[in-house]
Sequence to fold (371 residues):
Amino acid sequence: MRFNHLFRVFVCTSLLFFGHFTRAEPMLNGIGIHQELGREIFIGALYSESLSNDANTLLRNKQPMRMELKIVSPEGITARRFSRLWIEGLAVNSKADALMAQADNTVAFDAMFKGRLIQNDHVKISNTPGKGVTVSINDVVLGTIKDENFFSMLLATWIGSVPLSSDYRDSLLKVGDINATLRGRFTGINPSAARLAEVKTWSGEVKSSAQAKSSAKAVAVTSAAATPNEIEKPKLDVPAPVAAGSASVSSKRPGTPVKAQEEDEGPALTAQTLLARQFYVSDAIKKIRSKTKYPQRALDRGQAGSVRVAVVVDRQGNILSASILEGSNFDLLNKEALDAVDRSAPFPPLPETVSGSKFEFTVPMRWTLPE
Fold:
């Protein structure tokens, strides 16, 4: 008996000792499809060492985790559009001080993507405790960011309070209970040999994260000294649409489709220009949501859902166009989304640090029925 007891103690101790030095491979928590204008853009997958259906638990997770996405759009996605997805997601899901603390890392992350992502490209963003955040495309490592907090901020763009879409977030929180067809489709997407060789040239062009951080910080300090008032620290807590009261819905112009930004080339981001863009987006979204109402007829009919609107403004903040990227199943909510944008105009003029004759951003909105 004593021998058996000692043997069990030895086994348990050995397992704990072994587990301290070896970590399990993250498991598939969920898979979701991101769409724009009714077209699939990419399929994303979230892996975690511990599965969970609670977003906050995963965002606080200090275990190995991984975000993966595979491009399914036949047109691919430009580097600029891909970058904007992350920049906007960070802006609306993060506090101002966190954005400022991670500005250099965000610039380094943006610099890793050197060209258009094409159909079948496979992006991995892996967080390994003690080693940092590694970014790769088609298994070609583009760079590593040492601060593990950066991964949680990126993950919040998928499963935070303002995700790409509610459906997308819900699909990633399935605790491994995933549709077999979707799983098989995701697994079956692979890049060509020619594409693998092409992406390998990117890694040679990318600065190390330390170099990018140092460079971005130097530019930021110089720019901040020249224009101290352009990047003020705003409040980034975005209120949800008002779910009360009766509101007459005026007849607004319909949103005109926004042509996707096709230019892959553009001025390189610095910490200063990045923060200017992020703070502008967060303030604009905050203004729009303060003007958003819950249509009474939609409430009466039990209608709820999510809408994402693409907005383009000129340098003076006037709306050039607004269109629905992702609509709900209900016309009343889709119309209210466009109306709320119209009611919010004009927006502030663009900061001088934001280049170009126009600026595009997207606005996620969600209507939830009162309990």
Q: What stands out?
A: The chain has one domain: 27-367. The first helix runs from residue 2 to 21.
